[in-house]
Design a protein that fits this description.
The structure is a single chain. By secondary structure, the protein is of the alpha/beta class. The longest helix has about 45 residues.
Amino acid sequence: MTDEAATAALFKVYEIIAHWINLKGNYKRLRQEGKKLKAIRDAIEAEICKDRITPATREWIAKAKMIESEVKDLKTKYKNEMGHPWRLVRIWAYPILGVEMKEKYSQVHSLWEEGNLKREELDAELPEPVLKRHAAKIEENSSLHMAVQDLLSFLEDEQIRRVGVWGTVGIGKTTIMQNLNNHEQVAKMFDIVIWVTVSKEWNVEKLQEAIMRRLKLDMECFGDVEENARRISEELKEMKYLLLLDEVQDFIDLNASMEIHNNIDSKVVLASRSRCVCYDMEADELINVNRLSPADAWNMFQEKVGHPISSPLIKPIAEQVVKECDGLPLLIDRIGNAFKKKGKVVSLWRDGLNRLRRWDRVKTEGMNEVLDFLKFCYDDLDGNKRDCFLYGALYPEECEIYIDYLLECWNAEGFIHDADELVDDTNAFRDACDKGHAILDALIDVSLLERSDKKKCVKMNKVVRKMALKISSESNGSKFLVKPCQGLQDFPDKKEWEDASRISLMDNQLCSLPEFLQCHHLSTLLLQRNNGLIAIPEFFFDSMHNLRVLDLHGTGIESLPSSISNLISLKGMYLNSCTCLTQLPPNIRELVQLEVLDIRGTKLNLLQIGNLTWLKCLRISLPIFFRGIRTQRQFGSISAFVSLEEFCADDDLSEQCWDEVLMEEVVTLKKLTSLRFCFPTVDFLKLFVQRSPVWKNSFFTFQFCVGYQDNTYSQILESSDYPSYNSLKLVNGEGMDPVIAEVLKVTTVFKLVNHKGVSNLSDFGVNNMENMLVCSVEGGNEIRTIVCGDRMTNSVFKNLEVLHINNVLRLRSVCQGRIPHGSLAQLMSLTLTKCPELKKIFSDGMIQQLPQLQNLKVEECHQIEEIITESENLELEANALPSLKNLILIDLPKLRSIWVDYSLEWPSLQRVQISECHMLKRLPFNDANAAKLRCVEGQQSWWEALEWEDDAFRESLQSILHLQIAQPQVCM
């Protein structure tokens, strides 16, 4: 044997020994890590109640069990290998087995780390002790304030378990309950406060569902009434709780619902119009809520109306108006809104007072008195506004109604008169929508409709809705059959629907419809979300020649009957989310008046609706286009809709499915006024901008998304909080294409997600963003600053109102260099979240540019040391942030200062929330510079560590202080 061969053989032996040693080491580490994983899994399963375990945690536990089994298999395999070390053939398997163990160790360790995080999040999976509710301040309303104080004293009495609050509609019962829910003494008395609003449509199951959701119990295991009651009782048996039931209209058996007799330390407060209901609910004490005193009523009305009431000519009339309101807070609120519109015109105030006096004075108990008085606001409307208002009562109380949908229904019903005469017939649908918005605003102005938290929705107050239904019931020509959300399984009796002009049976459990309906006067039929409804009888629509709105969305129907052709007046048909719908009858072409058709989320294709070329508004899912074109090789489907004014196609498709055919179809639509569309690349957007004849139309509106973002791509349009704005979202793009600059010039909402090739927003051209109102930047590793002020001479972002920055990893500052005067002058809300390298917020005098800033939130920006940088704001004026109302600072571990001293004024500041900012030892506020401060939120440990120059100010904050006790960190 040569020396080289001997050396090679020796090296091979060493290599085998090394693998054997590594194998043993990998086995030992894997076994130890497996034990750690099992230990933390056992701990998590022991600590989390099985009824509250979240799907994410359940998934983690399943993964842990699976990987523990895999580790066990590897351990068995290892023992088999090591049990026969003399078999040379097995020696060569050592490297493979070692690699397997090493990889499995990494998986186990990763899952163990995730388990550690799960343990830290356990508290988040527990229900919050108190969920604060939006509540009107009642300090000035002494009778309401005294009611809250009485309730607190009853709750402290060990002999009293249930308290009833009763009084007429609009008297302030809900306001009392909300303030009780939020009261700091209540939080100290009880482990948890459970709020449930009980409406007429509610049953035991819905009550149980609300309680279980509040307790964060697993809703996938929602069972029968007895099982649910047992689970609720089991969860609450060790807790002292307060159950607040608002708007109770009938007796509720709490023992059957939640086995309440098992917990003698807990209490119930219920609010009802009826004193008898309180007695039936076995209330130990009653509180009768009386009307406001004349002084309190005047103060409330004065605050609602504002300046006009100060006129010496108006004040005597206003005093009479308040007298007519008879101390009912709801009436004062609504009528105050109505009179506020009259300004200082004495004749309008006199006329309003005279009309108010035509109603009988409040003398009787119950609902009618409030409904009759609220009718004053209704009678103050023009005729078409009245119809639009009454239409809102077709939807469930407090239901969020999409504005676009509501306006389309109004238009279809003919409530929006003379819309074509506003401009010309070219864009009649758009003109009607514009006029509809004016009507909507008028109804909101008098509080007959209310804006939802979602900007694209409105809702109707339940009391106002009752008034609308009462008016409808007394009308000869506009009878309503309204039974939404009532669990109906059968269609109402014949006598209920024969004379109805509008029927609303949405959100029920209808499984069948009558074969024949004699509904000659019916103009609206709302059957949406009856998901058990899978078929419509063949002759169902025979008599509905006057039907104008048909909503079947979210039902289980598979087809439409041929009698659909009888709907010769139909203008709006909603079939969206009918996931089983595959077929339309050929005679669908008889619907010659149809203007709005929504088939998103169905299995229909464009060929089935290709004859409806007169449509004004079409909403589809993009796959519909390709089902109609690619599989059947027929083109021109979309271009055939020559009358389209609004087109929506907002679902995602893989890039491979795209070609220019779709865009060639869309660009032929010459009457478009609104387009909601998702473009896979900038090139497709460029094709539309270059070739569409409507792009240059100043009235054209759009919501565009360019690029892909996993499965959330299609949600950009439907989730927009600014539905009437031109919005552009760029996802995973790169650089700055000229077409983006062109679109940005007319964009009002801009969102940038994971974009490459730009270091700041100025790279998009500041002149291209003059119309921008809302801007959001998310992700990306290349953006260093938002606004680069270097070499700028003109103001930038002068119309921007909202700026959100999230997860921009390399962001160093909001503004770099001094920005010109007038920049960011309209900015009202600034949010900075998860920017780990951000060091400066208000630098280089930027703070002087923000006179309108109302909301500032900074969260998880771990390098921030100063909110207002002292060294760069040496000449700061005292009134630098005159409009700031809300200041929220969360998880800023290096934050030392908001501002260095008390020299700044905070004239509008109302709320300060500070959490996980342990190095912040001083606040720049005192009695003189923050007089409007109403709420301070923080952690107990942080508050106690604060340093004060004025102990009196510290004591004055106690009444508005909301502290949380920091949870101890888990050390592993």
